[in-house]
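User: Some background: our group keeps a shared notebook of sequences we're curious about, and every so often someone picks one and asks for a predicted structure to add to the entry. Today it's my turn. The entry only has the sequence so far, pasted here. Could you supply the structure so I can complete it?
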Amino acid sequence: APEQMSGDEIGPQVDVYALGATLYELLTGRRAFPQTSIPVIVKAKTHGEFNKLDQSTGLPKSLCAIVNRSMETDPAKRFESAEAMGLALEQSLAELQGENRSVFVLENLVKRTFAS
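Assistant: Of course. Here's the predicted structure to add to the notebook entry:
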């Protein structure tokens, strides 16, 4: 999380950031920060320079919003805890279930994860 790199006080939002970055990569099959140089990665993270998710990714809007919020540079703009983020994810998937979109999201995730 950006605050870890700047030496600021850290809290539960660090875990939220890490979970968001991991979820970003699981859902898209791409790295949130593809830079290879440490100084460039640090700059990108501290300035929030990643491709924010939107519906052009084929992901539901609510899921994109959750991932983007969890990767906010300012910890105060993220979910206050991993539990709060989990509840938002559960709510998003429950809403999508009615649209049968959760099956689409999970199916694509499994295909990307286990494709040989």
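Suggested note for the entry: The chain has a mean pLDDT of 84. The CA atoms of residues 16 and 82 lie 5 Å apart.
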